[in-house]
Design goal:
alpha+beta, seven-stranded mixed beta sheet, five-stranded antiparallel beta sheet, 10 helices, 20 strands, 32% helix, 19% strand, ligase, TilS/TtcA_N, nucleotide-binding
Length: 400
């Protein structure tokens, strides 16, 4: 924890949050953090994907109570058991945890990932052709606009955590999905020690992590050439020659959880041209570059936007815009302008950018477009939106 500090004062106003699933890893983390510090709070996420999930969440909260750790159960709903179940559940979990941290004033969220998790991530990404950037695997600490994620156990053998819990008479929950060979990560986990080396993976991760830190310093030069507009698009004189940076830009603009495939980005850098990819679109900057010729604009693909949400303060719309302030009546919704964007052609923006901006709606009626300072109906309380993407371009992370 000293390597991750300094931390706020150890008092209730400044708790460190802990994501606790009820398994040995996260419960072991909670046990250790509570011995180190008094001001902690645990968040137990109930995915609702198994019949026993609610009772297991309650049981975990009770176990945390015996450790003198306050706990709050966060319930997810609407997760469909699709082919991308684990990925969708992970994204939903981080979103609800981030909101809970904001509500309780927690600047740091501790995660129970350990050395075997790190090795699994390395082999999983290598199998999918990840760049050296991705092969750095999980960061020891990663900052986002809303919370910093810390992983104090990233170099710890999970067997030590189980031994610690057993020595103190503490029980944990075993998730049956951890043995489901339908999941690629589980297959990799079972191969560790019988063909895949845990030690080799960790050595590689450390090497890639050091290289990633050096690359982040060099990337500052490329960032100085970009114009990132608060309406959520990027204007650049040329595509960056770094596929990682281009991927981060694409992810930031599109609001997606992941960047496009490295092979697709490398091909685009080698031969730039207008395209739509992974929720983003690239087109000639034109008048957005002022009097200068050439250049490219990267913006959200309006036709790919399906997001519609109630206008509640703190909610993130389309992975890009945060609702900073909204009335409490719950009648208003946020959705993209789409075809209604033709009403705002007087703004000096391409129509394809206008169509992807968020508007405030009451049912089928457009009420306002906060990013453009446009109000159609005067009787409603104002809604404030801010471009606040999940993906940041400054890599303020600790890798080694």
């Amino acid at each position: 924890m000293r390597k991750l500090g300094p931390f706020p004062a150890d008092e209730p106003r400044f708790p460190i949050a802990i994501a606790v699933s009820g398994g040995a890893d996260s419960l072991g983390l909670a046990f250790l953090l509570r011995r180190w510090r008094r001001a902690v709070i645990a968040f137990v996420v109930d995915h609702g994907l198994r019949e026993a999930s609610a009772s297991e969440a309650g049981q975990t909260a009770e176990r945390l109570a015996t450790l003198d750790i306050p706990a709050r159960i966060l319930t997810l709903s609407g997760l469909s058991k699709t082919r991308r179940l684990q990925e969708n559940a992970r994204q939903a979990r981080y979103e609800v945890l981030s909101r809970a941290c904001a509500e309780h004033g927690a600047l740091d969220l501790a995660l129970g990932h350990h050395a075997r998790d790190q090795a699994e991530t390395f082999y999983l990404r290598r199998a999918h052709g990840s760049t050296p950037h991705g092969l750095a695997a999980m960061a020891l600490a990663r900052e986002t606009p809303s919370v910093r994620y810390i992983r104090p156990l990233l170099s710890t053998d999970p067997a030590r955590l189980r031994a610690t819990l057993t020595a103190h008479g503490l029980e944990w929950i075993e998730d049956p999905s951890n043995q489901n060979m339908a999941f690629e990560r589980v297959r990799i986990r079972n191969a560790l020690g019988s063909g895949l080396s845990l030690y080799e993976a960790l050595v590689q991760v450390r090497s890639h992590g050091q290289a990633r830190l050096a690359q982040s310093a060099r990337r500052a030069r490329d960032l100085s050439q970009l114009c990132i507009d608060p309406l959520g698009f990027v204007v650049m004189p040329a595509l960056p020659d770094d596929p990682v940076l281009l991927g981060q830009l694409w992810q930031m603009v599109s609001g997606q959880g992941y960047a496009p495939a490295p092979a697709a980005l490398k091909a685009l850098i080698a031969k730039p041209g207008p395209c739509t990819l992974a929720g983003g679109m690239l087109f000639a900057a034109g008048r957005l570059r002022g009097q200068r010729e050439g250049g490219w604009c990267l913006a959200r693909e309006a036709g790919a936007i399906r997001a519609r949400c109630a206008a509640h303060s703190g909610t993130i719309w389309d992975g890009r815009f945060r609702i900073a302030d909204a009335p409490r009546d719950g009648e208003l919704e946020i959705a993209c302008l789409g075809a209604e964007s033709k009403r705002f052609r007087h703004h000096a923006l391409p129509s394809r950018i206008l169509a992807g901006l968020p508007g405030v709606w009451r049912g089928a009626q457009l009420i306002a477009v906060p990013p453009l300072n446009e109000t159609i109906a005067q009787e409603h309380e104002p809604v404030t939106l801010q471009f606040s993407p999940r993906q940041t371009l400054t890599d303020r992370s600790l890798w080694v």
